Amino acid sequence: MEFVIYTDMFIQQMQLPAAAVRAPTWFSTRRLLDEKLSDLHCCTNLNTVKQIQAQVLKHNLLQDPYVAPKLVAAFSVSRHLPSAVNVFNLVTNSNAHLYNTLIRAQAQNNAHPSVAFETFFQMQRNGVFPDSFTYTYLLKAFDGYNCFWTVQMVHAHVVKFGFLESDIFVPNSLIDSYCKCGRAGIDAAMRLFLEMEERDVVTWNSVIGGLVRGGDLGKACEAFDEMPERDVVSWNIMLDGYAKAGEIGKAFEMFEGMPERNVVSWATMVWGYCRAGDMNMARLLFDKCPGKNLVIWTTMISGYAEKGLVNEATKLYDKMEEVGMRIDDGFLISILAACAESGMVGLGKRIHASVERRRFRCSTKVLNAFIDMYAKCGSLDVALGVFSRIEKKDLVSWNSMIQGLGMHGRGEKALELFNRMVHEGFEPDKYTFIGLLCACTHAGLVNEGRNYFYSMQKVHGIVPQVEHYGCMIDLLGRGGTLGRSF
């Protein structure tokens, strides 16, 4: 009897509704977290990354060598480098992978090269040995003429630790970095190239790209002819070289002979013909291009705008909207710059309305481009309206507005804006003073202009340059005190 009762009770318990049975919470939460972590390094939403970071800290997973690099990479692609550094600093025993991830983040977020280099030095001080990835990421941080000696230092380090011949990615990265350092860098890249026993298509492309950038199209063509194998990048580099040199006929001849083309090939040719002023040929190539992306749309519309072809630019922009092409910051900045130079305020307003209709979240750089466009086209009140709505103004925002006001004779308003800028903690640069001096010139504010000129070095430590002296000569000349300009 008792056995039957217990059996019935067991059967009833087994038949309870599913909602009454609780899943193991810890297991479910951890499983969800693991799923989020697997793709975390691709996440660009800062708030999402911060939420996952909170869960990582809650479960004490930050010291996991798999988790910390994912968080650093996620903060990097979210453009929040300070948070990436904070995560790195919380890890007690950083390995080479974590150091490499931070160096890469610093390079990707355009930090000063010294920042990535300091992380590299810290890595060595803490006894962590670099690997081939360390050098390739470190070299990505150097991209200018002033980095030649630093690249040479990395080169010496690579040779000392034997990475020059063990991994072709390292010498390829060195060649690429050298080629960004001007004539001396290109010569160093060529020497390294000739020393290499093993070369791949990336090696050749880097050298040819450096020669093209250095303006040595003849040597670039010789290297291109000597290549044992080429890819579409090789051809596109030469197309770009010919287009920038104004040799659009040779570019078209090469374009016709390409074994395969991609949208970059088509966009380069469209840009070349726009630059040469042959808008019909540019449009013909644009229409023939298969699989158009935003870059080629931007190139064609900007070409029309720069040439002042209002109807063509507007119609093509409308067509782009019809096909559902999504805009980005690069598109807006390029088109607005072209509108500003040609005075095409109508297209600029149309784009502005489209941006607001789509509720596109404009970055400060895009809003600065709107200010510049409206100011140069004489729509100062609209420019001031955009300026006032920028939540995070940068120095370019202030400079654009000051220059716009000064350009159109509203000097006193420009000086008032400058005083407000300084009061809010922004430090002026040389461009700020060019805008101020121009404002004083157009408004006839001779004494004020003279005072600002002398305050440049005394108060702000900015040495006047040729442009500033030119503004002063113009100011004193218009004010009838030309004798003081000599």
From TrEMBL:
User: Which InterPro entries does the record associate with it?
Assistant: PPR_At4g14850-like_plant, PPR_rpt, TPR-like_helical_dom_sf
Asked if Repeat is a keyword of the record, the answer is: yes
- Gene3D superfamilies in alphabetical order: Tetratricopeptide repeat domain
Keywords assigned: Repeat
The answer to whether keyword GTP-binding applies is: no
- In the UniProt record, the signal sequence range is none
Q: Which domain of life is it from?
A: Eukaryota
Q: Which Pfam families match?
A: PPR, PPR_1, PPR_2
Q: According to the record, where are the PPR repeats?
A: 95-130, 167-199, 200-230, 231-265, 293-327, 394-428
Record-linked PANTHER family: PENTATRICOPEPTIDE REPEAT-CONTAINING PROTEIN (PTHR47926), REPEAT (TPR)-LIKE SUPERFAMILY PROTEIN, PUTATIVE-RELATED (PTHR47926:SF413)
What is the official name of this protein in its record?
Answer: Pentatricopeptide repeat-containing protein
Q: Which organism is it from?
A: Stylosanthes scabra
- The primary gene name is PCMPE27_3
